[in-house]
Design a protein that fits this description.
By secondary structure, the chain is mainly alpha-helical. It contains eleven helices and no strands. α7 packs antiparallel against α8.
């Protein structure tokens, strides 16, 4: 239960800090409106790293169903724990988005643009192309999961461990995770917003659907929203299979 609580709180913090950056630079009358893409890249990297420092020893700091599935595939946790992790992550993502809607409530009202508000909480493609959008999220998550698997394994080998560690446990690894998130965003963010995480996209998307005000054209865009759920899981599975084949 401690691991599930850690995943819930950690994912809520991730969304609170990550989507908070998007709200901060996008919503009208925010003191940092127009902060730009570099602001978002740095903020999202920190949004993943900060809760990871707090909850790594409790749950491994997955905060992402795709990461959890990859860890289970590589033998780092029991498959029986996976449903609990994913439920905790999705609930955390919803709560984090709900808190932001309260904090930025006045700014959301001042923005009065459904698409802009939605974009603060979930991703969307710059050019709608189902195949390429799916591939973008697949490749970005492949890079994320393969790298997350490699970092602790390399750390274990350098420390003389007989077997690689399957979860990220040292403070140094969280700084490397920051680098991975920023690198993925810098390379793939302009395509689909680099969700790579159903708890970061589908849960806040649902929160937008049920909690955000309607300025006339409110649409959570589930026609696209399935891609940030399915593609990251597929990318994680392939990354884990390749990692295991190489090691």
């Amino acid at each position: 239960m401690t691991a599930y609580i850690a995943e819930f709180i950690g994912t809520a913090m991730l969304v609170l800090l990550g989507d908070g950056v998007c709200c901060n630079v996008s919503l009208n009358k925010s003191g940092m409106k127009g902060g730009g893409n570099v602001h978002i890249l740095i903020g999202w990297g920190m949004a993943v790293m900060v809760p990871a420092f707090s909850f790594g020893a409790m749950s491994g700091s997955h905060f992402n169903p795709a990461v959890t599935i990859g860890v289970a595939m590589r033998g780092g946790m029991s498959w029986g724990q996976v449903p609990g992790y994913i439920v905790a992550q999705m609930l955390g993502g919803f709560v984090g988005a709900a808190i932001l809607m309260v904090l930025y409530g006045d700014h959301i009202k001042e923005t009065a643009d459904d698409a802009c508000v939605r974009g603060c909480f979930c991703t969307g493609p710059s050019i709608r192309n189902t195949v390429l959008n799916f591939l973008s999220e697949f490749v970005a998550t492949f890079v994320l999961v393969f790298t997350l698997a490699s970092i602790p394994a390399q750390t274990a080998l350098e420390n003389g461990a007989a077997d690689p560690a399957w979860t990220l446990t040292t403070n140094a690894t969280w700084v490397l995770v920051y680098g991975v998130i920023v690198a993925c965003g810098a390379s793939f963010g302009g395509l689909t917003g680099y969700a790579m995480n159903a708890a970061r996209d589908a849960a806040p998307r649902f929160a937008y659907q049920v909690l955000a005000p309607n300025f006339g054209k409110k649409d959570p865009d589930w026609a696209y929203g399935w891609i940030p759920v399915v593609a990251p899981i597929c990318g994680s599975i392939v990354a884990s299979l390749l990692y295991m084949a190489l090691h």
